[in-house]
Every structure is written in C-alpha cells, then in structure tokens.
C-alpha cells in the first residue's frame, strides 16, 4: 500500500462515503439528491457520490451510456448547485462514470458504430444492454480523456467511481485489417491507453481520487491500484457474506483500499435480514461507505449510524493502515468470526466479533488478541456490545494476548466491536 498506490508512500485514509444508487437507482433529480446529501451529512459522511442516471438520456440501463453531458430534465441547473449543496455541510462531491462502455441507444454509438469491439459479419453481443468501446483506438482514447477532463475542469469533483460492467466479447478491430499485427495487440493497447488516460487525468487533476469499480471486483490488481485510490471488491453487500469476501480479499490487498458498504436490509442478494448495527460493524472492517436508502430510515437508524460513524473515525487509521490479524476466520461454515487491527505504533487496536447463530448454549469462543506491546497498559472501550462482567477496564498487552477476552454474543446474526487504547 505504501509503495503501489498513487499517494505512496503516505496514502491518505479513505473518507466515509455515501452513494445514492440504492436510494434512487436511475431516478436521479436535483431535489432528491440534495435531500439525500443533507441526510448523509447528518450522520457524519465526508463524501457524497451521485451514482448512475445523471447523464445523457439515461432513464434505465438501455440508453445514454457514452453521452457524458448532464441530463437537463433531471438536473436543469447542471451539477454546480448540487455540488455547492454537498459542500455546504463540509462534504466533498463524487460522481459515477463508466467511460469504457456505450449503449447502442446513444448519440455516441449512432455517430461512431465503428468505435466498439466487433468482428465483421458477426453479431455484436450486448451485456447489460451495452457494448465495449475499443479503447485501443487513438480516437476513442482521445474522446474518453477529453470528456473526463472537461467534466473535472468545469466542476468541483473530488472523486470518480469508475465502473466497468461487462466482460469483453467479439474483441475485433476491423479498421486495422484482419491480418494486421495491430489486431493482435488490441488487448495490450487497450490497457496501455486505459492506464494512459488515468495517468493524464491524475496529472492534470491531482486532487481527484478514483475508485476502480468493475462489475463487482472484476478489475483489482496492482496495475490498476497504481492509478486508483480504492477498489470495489464485490456487488454482494450482504454483511454476513462480506465477512468471507473481505477475509479473502485481505490476503492479497490491504483493507485500506477495500470499500465496504452498509446497504439495505433485507439484502437484495439473498433476502437476509440483519440489524443496522451488524451491517455497520461488518463494513467497518474496511473503508466504510453507506449505500442504503436514507429516505426510509427511522430516527433510531440515524442515531445508530451517527454514533458508529463517529466511532469508526476514531479507529479508521488503524483499520485501514494498521496490521490485520484474523483471529477467527469466517471460513468453512464457521459460526464465529473475529478480526483485530493494530496501529503501526501499537498505540491502538480494534476488535470485531461476529456470531452467525448460537447453538446448544455454547458461549462465544474466548478471543486472544495479538500484536500488542506486552508491557503497555491498554484501556478497553466498547464500540458496540459488551464483554464478560469480570473483564478489567485496563490491563497489559500481555494480559489481553494471554488471557484474552470473553465477548457476550448470543442469538442470531450478532456483532460487537471494542477499542483498545494505550495508556
């Protein structure tokens, strides 16, 4: 992380974000987005991101992709008034884009049908009603860079959620000829131009941060991480499933780049119902985001979220940039899961524990912490949940690692978290 990311050797921590997708999907309008921004600011969000639906003739996923102008029916005053509204409580503004794709029902495709991957005489296979632009072409590369540069130059945008929602098919380049060596270079040339665009955008707009979001973790590698600040591990945001997803992801990549959202319940993936507390604690193990529909939240939900986001901000440096210990891995059907993050200077640790379901009255396993300074005294403070009644408030690192802690978790889909601070 300290060597690969664009901000190396001192990458910034990721802000708490709110994304509007689950609240509005394609039904974007100025009043609705501004209302969501006000609610996001109330719970302590630092970055508001308007997702798909703001551009072209974008009413659903059938049209508009490739036409990167503001939809005047939805946003008659353009982006600036909304950006100003987002800025007023201290948040910055982010925007969803999918630069490498095009809908056949778009001005861009009608003007340049030759700009997509295709083999002469074969059907052009659509996925999610879109085709893949041939970014290996210099004219396509030029178009993509120019619209991004214009968008960022004309608006105070701090963040781009760069999506990529389908795999390649018919990766042909008829313009260079079937037998041309250039045809064979389409894969390499495409990526070279993608990296070139990202490099130029970052050079001209150095304050803009970018997320590599690719159909749910489809493009996460060290190459893209050298040019982007965070990644989207999976479209599956179910908080229990995420325990395994995030565990596996963290074997290869740091939690500091792993976006983890709190979304609605029941979850769309499997119709599982979980508490807001459980959803937050699952997501707080990575870079925290909120994607739930705030328009449906109760006053209690807002209070819970506000408290947990405030708590997360006290430990996010440790979670995102510290050392991760997998105390109880959530693999092979385990009923239990526990992770611990320890700050680089060992002055802070945060423990997360999760219970799928109690069985036969067995207690949650005792958890022995790791990575603490044995001689340092640490004070334990609950973020959410409770420990056994005889747990000391202050004890040495040696005690916490040797004796361990007993987390009071019983029932189904329960979670707890605790902060340990050096005294």
The first-level CATH class name of the largest domain: Alpha Beta
What share of residues are in beta strands?
A: 15-25%
- The CATH architecture assignment of the largest domain turns out to be Alpha-Beta Barrel
Number of self-contained structural domains: 2
Mean pLDDT across all residues, rounded?
Answer: 96
Question: Based on DSSP secondary structure assignment, what is the total number of beta strands?
Answer: 16
Biggest sheet descriptor? 8 strands, parallel
pLDDT below 50 for ≥5 consecutive residues: which ranges?
A: none
CATH topology category name of the largest domain = TIM Barrel
State the shape.
Answer: elongated
């Amino acid at each position: 992380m300290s060597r690969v990311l664009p901000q190396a050797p001192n990458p910034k921590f990721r802000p708490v974000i709110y994304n509007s997708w689950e609240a509005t999907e394609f039904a974007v309008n100025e009043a609705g987005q501004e209302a969501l921004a006000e609610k996001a600011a109330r719970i302590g969000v630092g970055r508001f991101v308007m997702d798909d639906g703001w551009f072209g003739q974008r009413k659903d996923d059938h049209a508009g992709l490739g036409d990167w102008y503001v939809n005047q029916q939805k946003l008659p005053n353009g982006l600036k008034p909304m950006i100003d509204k987002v800025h007023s409580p201290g948040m910055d503004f982010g925007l969803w884009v999918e630069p490498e794709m095009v809908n056949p029902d778009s001005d861009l495709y009608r003007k340049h049908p030759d700009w997509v991957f295709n083999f002469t005489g074969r059907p052009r296979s659509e996925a999610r009603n879109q085709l893949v632009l041939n970014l290996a072409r210099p004219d396509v590369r030029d178009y993509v860079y120019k619209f991004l540069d214009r968008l960022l130059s004309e608006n105070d945008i701090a963040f781009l959620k760069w999506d990529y929602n389908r795999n390649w098919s018919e990766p042909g380049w008829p313009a260079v000829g079937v037998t041309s060596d250039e045809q064979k270079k389409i894969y390499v040339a495409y990526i070279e131009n993608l990296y070139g665009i990202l490099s130029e955008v970052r050079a001209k707009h150095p304050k803009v941060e970018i997320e590599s979001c690719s159909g749910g973790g489809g493009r996460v590698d060290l190459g893209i991480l050298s040019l982007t600040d965070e990644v989207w591990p999976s479209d599956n945001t179910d908080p229990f499933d995420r325990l395994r997803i995030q565990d596996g992801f963290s074997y290869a990549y740091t939690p500091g780049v792993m976006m983890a959202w709190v979304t609605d319940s029941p979850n769309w993936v499997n119709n599982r119902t979980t508490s807001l507390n459980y959803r937050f604690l699952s997501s707080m193990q990575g870079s925290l985001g909120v994607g739930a529909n705030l328009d449906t939240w109760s006053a209690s939900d807002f209070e819970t979220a506000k408290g947990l986001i405030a708590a997360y901000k006290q430990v996010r440096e440790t979670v995102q940039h510290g050392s991760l210990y997998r105390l109880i891995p959530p693999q092979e059907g385990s009923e239990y899961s526990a992770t611990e993050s320890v700050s680089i200077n060992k002055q802070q640790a945060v423990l997360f524990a999760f219970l799928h379901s109690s069985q036969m009255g067995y207690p949650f396993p005792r958890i022995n912490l790791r990575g603490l300074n044995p001689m340092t005294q640490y004070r334990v403070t609950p973020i959410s949940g409770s420990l056994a009644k005889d747990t000391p408030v202050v004890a040495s690192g040696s005690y916490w690692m040797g004796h361990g802690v007993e987390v009071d978790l019983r029932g189904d889909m329960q979670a707890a978290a605790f902060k340990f601070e050096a005294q």
